[in-house]
Amino acid sequence: MNFNFIILVLHILSLTICLGSTFYLITHARKTILIYCFLWLQGIILVWTSGQLFEIYTLSITAKWALNAFQYIGISLIGLCWLTFSLVYSDYSFNKKSKFLYKILFIFPVIFYFLLLTNNYHHLFYKEFHMDYKVYGLFFWFNLIFNQLLVTIGTLVIIKYSLKTFRQSKKELSFIVFATMIPQTANIFTVFLNINIDLTPLAFSLCLLLFIFATYKYNFINIVPEAFRSIVKNMSESIVVLDSLNRIVIYNDSFEKNFKNIFNLKSSTQISAFIEGLKIYADNDSESFTNALMNKKTFSFNGKIKISHSTTKYFLVNINPVKDIGKHIVGRVISFTDVTYDTILLEEISIKNKELLNLNLQLEAFAHTTEELAIANERNRFAKDMHDSLGHSFSALLTLMKVSKIMYKKDFDEGESNLDEAIKVASEGVKELRRSIKGLMPSKFENDNLTSSLKSLTLSFNTPNLNINFVSKGTEPKINSLVSIALFRCCQESLTNALKHSNADFINVTLIFNVNNIILKVKDNGSGCEKINKGFGLIAIEQRINELKGNLIIKSSKNKGFLILIKIPV
Description:
This protein is an alpha+beta fold. The protein is built from 18 helices and twelve strands. It is 62% helix and 15% strand.
C-alpha cells in the first residue's frame, strides 16, 4: 500500500475525530470551564493536523513554509493547552503565585513562534528548510523540550488525580492512565525514532476520543442528555446533579437564582465550593447536609436548611442516587424546595400561640387578683359599715344607759324613758348589722333624701349633755346613691368620734349644695388635740372620699375643737 495514502488516511482520521468530537461536545455538553479547555485542545490539534496534512501535499517551498508556520500555531501551544486541560480536569486551585507562573508560561510559546517566523534571518529554529527534509536548530529543540515537559507535567497531574479519585475502581484508573499516555508515547516515537510521519496530533485526537468515550461510560466530563436538561430547566424546585466525582453535572435556573449569591457557578463545578458558601451563610443545623454532600457514599438524605444572605430562606433538601442502565450508582440528584413562606407562617403561629398562652395566664392571674380584690373590698366595706353603724349605735346606747343610771336616782319615769330609747337604739343597731351583712343601704335612705337622712342622724345623737345643730344650705339635687351613703357614713363616723373623744357639748353639722360639689362640715367645741392620729374611723372616711375623688380636710388644735370638712364633686 502507498505510504502517502496511509499518511493521508491517518490525517483524515485525526481530522474526523477532532471535528466529530467537537461537534458532539458543542451540541450535548454543558458549557463549563472543563469543556472550554477540551474544545481549545481540540482546536489546537485541528490546526496542527490540517496544517501538517496540506504541508505534505504542497508543491511549493513558499506554501510549505506557510503551512509549516500555520501548523506551528498548534504545536507551540499544545503543551500549555494540555497542561491547562489537565489542571482544570483535576480541579486544581490557583493561588496568586501559581497564576503568575502560569502567565509566565505563555511567554515561551510566543518567543518560539516568533523565532520560527523570523528563521530566515538567524536560522536558530531551522538550520535548513527544504521540500524533502529539515535540519533542526537549537530553539526547535527548546520548543520540543518545553512542550514535552508541559505535556509530561499535565499527564502526571491527571494520573495523580486519577489515583486519588479512582483508587477503588481499577478499570477507570487504567482507562485514564492509558488515554493520557498515548500522546507521550507517540511524540517519543516520532521525534527520537526519526519516523517520517508525525503521529503526535493523531495520538492527541485518539486520547481525546477516549475521553469522550469515558464521558459516556464513566461520566468524566459531564455530558448530559438534552431531554433531562429540558425537564429540570423550568422546575420550581432547585435541582443540581452531581457525578461520581462530586462535580456538578447540571443545574436548573431555579438553583442558579437561589444560590448565585453564595456560589459562583462560572468559576467552579466542584460541590466543595458550594459547601464552603453554605458554611458561611447557612445555620448550624445544615452541618448534617454538608457532610452528606461531601461524602460521595451518602446517596440518600432528607433535611431542612436555613440560609441567611440578603434575605433569609428555608429549604427542604433531598439527596437521591442516579443509576445507569446496569443499576450502578453514577451520581446524585439534589433538590431544594423553597419552604420559606410556610416556615415563617408556622413561626408566626407559634409566636402568636405563646402570646395567647401568656395572655391566658395573665387573665387567670387577673381574675384571681380581681377575686381577691373583691373579697378585700367587701371585707373593708363590711368593716367600715360595722364601724359606722355599730359604732354609732353602741356609742349612743352607752350614753343613754349612763344617763338612765343617773336619772333613775332622780326621776324613775325619766330613767325608764331613757331605757326605752336605749332599747330602740339597740334594735336599730341590730338592723344596721343585718343590712351591712347583706350589703344594703342604711335604713334611713330607704325613704329619705340625704338632707333628711343627716337631720335624722343628728337628732339620734342628741342627748341632754350634747346639743347637735344641723344646717342645710342650697337645694339638694338628684345624688348618686354611692355619694349619699358615703356622706351619711362620714357624718355618722364624725359624730361618733366627737361623742367618744371630744368631750364636746355642742356640734355643728353643715350640709351645702353647690353647682359643682357638695360640702359636709362637722365642727365640735371639744378639747381637740395637738396631733391627729388616724384610727380606723378616720381612715374609713378618707377611703370613702378618695373613692369618690373628693377632698378631705381634718383640722384640730388643743382646746379648740375638731373639724372635718368634706368636698365631693357632683
